[in-house]
Amino acid sequence: MLRDSLDGVLAMIAGLPPVAGFLAIVLATFILEDVAIVSTALLASTGMLEPVTGLTALLIGIVLGDLGLFGLGYGAARTPVLRRYVNTQVARRFRDVSARGTFSLVFSTRFVPGMRLPTYTSLGYVGASFWRFLQAVLFAVSLWTGALYGIILFLGKSVLDEFGAWKYAAIGVIIVIVILVERTLIKRRRAKVEADDVD
User: Fold this and answer.
1) What is the mean pLDDT of the chain?
2) Taking the CB of residue 197, how many other CB atoms lie within 10 A of it?
3) Whole-prediction pTM value?
4) Helix axes 51-77, 18-31, angle to 10 degrees
5) Whole-angstrom distance, CA of residue 24 vs CA of residue 29
6) Using an 8 Å Cβ cutoff, are 183 and 34 in contact?
């Protein structure tokens, strides 16, 4: 049953015109970024997608998403209704931190699940340098996404061959594991932040 449904999904994606498939990957990064990376790499490893096309779509989608978060914060700072909900002490503290190193802050945040939304919107809100932000995002996204995509693409070809007829079930299991690990890391990070706030 799982194999039949995954067969159907993969066949549908493989049957899309190239531009539609490319846009589907770009949009998928806005929903669950890590799952989009894993799924795209696995599709490429099965030969249903050109590896370079998949990686390019992922990079474009992730960078656009990060820029969107920055823009959201920038827009909120210029909207009086939204500004009322911002803790000015926290914003001032964040402005000081970002002034010392936007690049390192953006780079390190890329590798901590659940931190991009608050960090990138805050950078936009406090008026951090857009060009430094863009440089850091391009560097961090290329490094992280390229490495993860390459590893899964490399392992996918050999591992999926071993699974034979069960390879699509293996793809489903890998995607579920990525979702569970990501959610666990986000919950732990939130719990730590809440504990720090109480102290």
Assistant:
1) 76
2) 7
3) 0.72
4) 50
5) 9
6) no
First to last CA, the chain: 50
Q: What is the pLDDT of residue 186?
A: 59
pLDDT confidence bin for 40, thresholds 50/70/90:
confident
**Residue 185 and residue 180: Cα distance in Å, rounded?**
9
- What beta strand segments (E) does 34-99 contain? none
Query: In the prediction, which pLDDT does 161 show?
Result: 60
Give the domain ranges of the chain: 2-198
Tokens standing for 160?
A: 């999926």
Distances (CA, A) of 39 to 19, 117, 169, 173, 189: 18, 22, 13, 11, 25
Q: Please give the distance of CA 21 from its chain centroid, rounded to a whole number.
A: 18
